[in-house]
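User: Predict the full complex structure for these chains.
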Amino acid sequence: MPSHPQSSDSDLPRAGLGATLAARLVASIRAGDFKPGDRLPTEMQLVERFSVSRAVVREAIARLKTDGFVESRQGSGAFVSAKPGLANFRIANQLAAADLAHVFELRGVIEVGMAELAAQRRSKADIAALDAAFMQMQQALEGGQDGADADDAFHAAIATAAHNPYLAQFAAFLAQHFSATRAVTWQPEARASGSTLAAQAEHLDLVKAILRGDAEAAGFAARRHVANAAARYQAAQKKKG
Amino acid sequence: MPSHPQSSDSDLPRAGLGATLAARLVASIRAGDFKPGDRLPTEMQLVERFSVSRAVVREAIARLKTDGFVESRQGSGAFVSAKPGLANFRIANQLAAADLAHVFELRGVIEVGMAELAAQRRSKADIAALDAAFMQMQQALEGGQDGADADDAFHAAIATAAHNPYLAQFAAFLAQHFSATRAVTWQPEARASGSTLAAQAEHLDLVKAILRGDAEAAGFAARRHVANAAARYQAAQKKKG
DNA sequence: GCTGGAAATTTGTCTGACAACCTGACAAAT
DNA sequence: ATTTGTCAGGTTGTCAGACAAATTTCCAGC
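Assistant: Here is the predicted structure of the four-chain assembly.
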């Protein structure tokens, strides 16, 4: 058994009929088949059209309701919301290269803002956590170990130092989609090419700017770090593919 | 019938049993009653504990699945996800004053980033849309009409000019929570105090910076505009409450 | 034309049943 | 002793039918 849990298709539960139908209905709404205010087909019509039971249809519609795509009224029907899909913000699990670049850019905007705020608001405890994460990465760099976890902790420490829970939560949300890119930084190929060293140098610039409370420099360092991380990841992808 | 749709409690559908149970289970997970990896009570146990039918329990769990709180496996049970609630980003409908300030800050970070990118990437069509929205606000300002819609269009035009769909979608998501604050800018009280005029002056700075492609100035103008908007809104709240 | 109420329609909830799947225990074979 | 096969029980997934609750439609009656 591999030590790293492999996320193959078999170990994650297959999508049931309800989830599948929900996805199809969302696609229909996004495609414009149903516009805001329109009434969806009745449950019985959906039962006949998709050859499933009413329980499946109701599960699908329940999912659409939690995602804010539709609102249903007893006795009347289910109606597409005024702002379908805007009740929450979501990013697809699999992203094309062009989309990934855009998400990288979004992440950059957030990281820059957090770095600036962290420089203005950092407490002694924030500095201690930031320093600890940085030193852990340094040890991983010198010892040839995996510093991905310390890298996570480093960025989390910056988010904490910004003292804005919404900003931190959104950064954590975005970070999920970058586990692969963070892993690249600490792979043997990256060490050989000097990418890991370069990334750590960028981390140092960021730490120093935050320590001395220089918001402008912190923002600049964060901007450069994310931009370079994106470049390094895309270069690694090109080399591999 | 009022021209502005009033969102009273009566016209939006009451939460059903399924939605209620889902909310309670989410609260339990957030409170730590169930930790990541834990197995939820079986559907039959939930049926007995909450005195509802299995259909209601299944609707609640279906909602938890779409929100990424749990994953269920046929024959085994429903398990709390590793990162519960991080599958999507969501903001509560009703925010306390302190939370609203934080969300304002998050919005500011996004607006600054979009303004910078818009200055770098604006096309002729972007400029035309931006100009049209600004002129519409100007007319509303001079004619004493409501410019809230034009205000929306103005910020949407900046989002479009940034040429990043994820950034734009997130900005639109955030904008939903600021309809009240944008309305404040165009109320008679704001006109009397000069707030509306000040806001429009800030809009002009923003437009000019984007037109001449000055990213730094655009970012600065956006930062100032959002900060002032927050201050104006909080002042109006204090005056009213 | 308008009103009132019955009838039809639609979603919400309950109940029972079976299928698909997983888990653990036990027996059998190696 | 370890592995393998089998079985029984439990759990989620799906189906079917029924009734309750709320809305909409329609028509008789004025």
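The longest helix of chain A spans residues 215-240.
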